[in-house]
Amino acid sequence: MTAVLDHLAIGTPALTDGWELFGGVLGGTWLYGMDSPGYWWGQLEFAAGPKIELLTPTGGTDAVFLERFLAARGAGPHHFNFTVSDIRATLARIRALGIEPVGVSLDHPAWQEAFLRPRDAHGIVIQVAQQAGSPSAGAPPAELPEPGPATSFGLIEHHVGDLAGATRLFAEVLDGRLEADGDDAAELTWPGGKRIRLVREDGLPVGGLLHHVRFTRAGGAFSPQDRERAGLLAKRLGVTVELAD
């Protein structure tokens, strides 16, 4: 059984800010997206690292989970997604840690999923999913700009109250390779340049907080205008972005 970090999902009431930041400034290119009951989602991929997924509610009873999230905290990181080769084996590992998954849906052979609540997953929703094939690309949104220069999505830094417990979840259940393990931080990697740094911090809400994400421009430096634009857009999206040359 394998699990791989696939994407970071960001909930937002206004998709344009996300397209401008992750596409126009950070060089993300359209992968796929579509309407699902209650929300619309679309994904951008980068030269390396996980994908970014943008979510926005579209109304109805199936939109309640996302509308509630946005009403409580505004735009911001919503979940980590891990693709797994055997979801039943993954669920057994999760339960062996004393965590009970929610939203378990195993009936559709093309897409099976389950979720960990933020209080069980150190401050953020975690989605595990087994997928047969890839969805059709769908048409990219009209407001998606031409991609800027290519970047790598090289790091997610996530602060947690229980470093040992978070490390155990990401390493033992979600197959992260432990690259560094100390009293105050741990770093885990997955194939394709995907990296999460866990940092111990006391007093966090729900036991954790996504601190920042890092993008590196492979072919040169970010301009002062790029940095200013990225900062404004990221603030509206409720995420802190570090730009590295």
Mean pLDDT: 96
Strand content: 35-45%
- The CATH class of the largest domain, by name, is Alpha Beta
Strand arrangement across the biggest beta sheet: 2-3-4-1-5-8-7-6
Low-confidence stretches: none
Task: Set down the secondary structure blueprint.
Blueprint: E1 3-11, H1 15-25, E2 29-36, E3 39-45, E4 51-57, H2 64-73, E5 76-84, H3 87-96, E6 102-105, E7 111-116, E8 125-131, E9 151-160, H4 163-173, E10 177-181, E11 185-190, E12 194-200, E13 208-217, H5 224-237, E14 241-244
Parallel strand pairs: 1-4, 5-8, 9-12, 13-14
Antiparallel strand pairs: 1-5, 2-3, 3-4, 6-7, 7-8, 9-13, 10-11, 11-12
Written description of the protein model:
With 245 residues, the chain is of the alpha/beta class. The protein has 2 domains: 3-131, 2,3-Dihydroxybiphenyl 1,2-Dioxygenase, domain 1, CATH 3.10.180.10; 151-244, 2,3-Dihydroxybiphenyl 1,2-Dioxygenase, domain 1 (Roll), CATH 3.10.180.10. The chain is built from 5 helices and 14 strands. It has helices at 15-25, 64-73, 87-96, 163-173, 224-237, and strands at 3-11, 29-36, 39-45, 51-57, 76-84, 102-105, 111-116, 125-131, 151-160, 177-181, 185-190, 194-200, 208-217, 241-244. The strands form 2 sheets. An 8-stranded mixed sheet has the order 2-3-4-1-5-8-7-6, sandwiched between helices. Strands 10-11-12-9-13-14 form a 6-stranded mixed sheet. Strand 3 and strand 4 form a beta hairpin. It is globular and about 50 Å long. It starts with a strand and ends with a strand. 40% of the residues are buried. The model has no long low-confidence stretch (mean pLDDT 96).
